[in-house]
Write a structure and sequence with these properties.
Distance between the termini: 30 Å
Mean pLDDT: 94
Low-confidence stretches: none
Shape: elongated
Bound molecules: adenine
Structural class: alpha/beta
Number of strands: 11
Length: 239
């Protein structure tokens, strides 16, 4: 999988070198290139924004540097389809199924907007290109200062699903949001709580059933607690 990230703050992406994603990069399971949008900005001031047509607060990112930066990464990659992800609080909300779907794609381009966002013609233009698919993506109903942190979140959700990234792929099987809620196609269960040694910590004991060695009992207890948790947190069986 190839990933290109376009941003005015490349330093935000330093943490990708750490932990499991760092190892996935070393193992070449994924290749990530970070591009500075300002490299495509004209003039000595390297300006990437301007005032909004129609008035209003804040600045809007200009289409020219975005077009140049996106064209450059598309031209340098030989994928059949390029998936452009534009991070915006006005986008579709990220969930586990979307992460799963994106983990199956071959070339992802993340556009990190700042200020009041990117001139919308950039989305319109690439949506009309036959070899590009565009999605506007939000990581939740709150406003960040830009798309960088949202991109980091999305990248982590995707990359941990790629084969060979997690030491034990069984971790993916029972975790939150991976199991459909019974009788509800749209909902997913939250995971049961986990415990490790010591068996008693600050007077608190691990639930007895987990020490029983009875796998059927443990399975039953875990699914009961997971159901209760899902009901409490998400309401009903899930969101
Ligand atoms: N940019 C600003 N806020 C955002 C959010 N919630 N999700 C994605 N991108 C954003």
């Amino acid at each position: 999988m190839q990933i290109d990230v376009i941003t005015i703050f490349p330093a935000y992406f330093e943490p990708l070198k750490l932990s499991l994603i760092g190892k996935a990069l070393e193992k070449q399971i994924v290749e990530i290139a970070i591009h500075d949008l300002r490299d495509q900005a004209p003039g000595v001031h390297k300006s990437v924004d301007d005032t909004p047509y129609g008035g209003g607060a804040g600045m809007v990112m200009s289409p020219e540097p975005w077009g140049a930066a996106i064209d450059q990464v598309i031209d340098s990659r030989d994928a059949q389809i390029h998936d452009l992800v534009v991070l915006t609080p006005a986008g579709q909300k990220l969930n586990q199924s979307m992460a799963q779907e994106m983990a199956g794609l071959s070339h992802l381009i993340f556009a990190c907007g700042r200020y009041e966002g990117i001139d919308h013609r950039v989305t319109d233009y690439y949506q009309a290109q036959p070899h590009v698919r565009v999605r506007e993506l939000s990581i939740g109903d709150y406003v960040l200062n830009g798309g960088e942190v949202a991109t980091l979140v999305t990248l982590e959700a995707i990359i941990r699903l790629l084969p060979g990234v997690l030491g034990n792929p069984d971790s993916l099987v029972e975790e939150s949001h991976s199991i459909p809620a019974p009788g509800d196609e749209e909902s997913h269960m939250l995971e049961y709580p986990n415990y490790t040694k010591p068996a008693v910590w600050r007077g608190l004991s691990v639930p007895e059933v987990l020490l029983s060695g009875n796998h059927a009992l443990i399975k039953g207890w875990r699914s009961k607690i997971a159901r209760e948790r899902t009901q409490k947190i998400l309401g009903q069986t899930g969101e």
